[in-house]
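User: Sequence in, structure out. Go.
Assistant: Echoing your sequence, followed by the structure tokens.
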Amino acid sequence: MSLPSIEELKALACDREIQARAMIVCWYIAIGMMILGYLIMAYLLFFNH
């Protein structure tokens, strides 16, 4: 069993970073959609009296 080379480790670290960024972006979009949904619901409830 050989140790991974520095290049392989760099590639893995870079991949991890990209995955982490993608997850953060996904979370921001999901939270933004939730807030938007709540605002639309509040707007509809407030102005439909």
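User: And one key feature?
Assistant: Residues 6-47 form the longest helix (42 residues).
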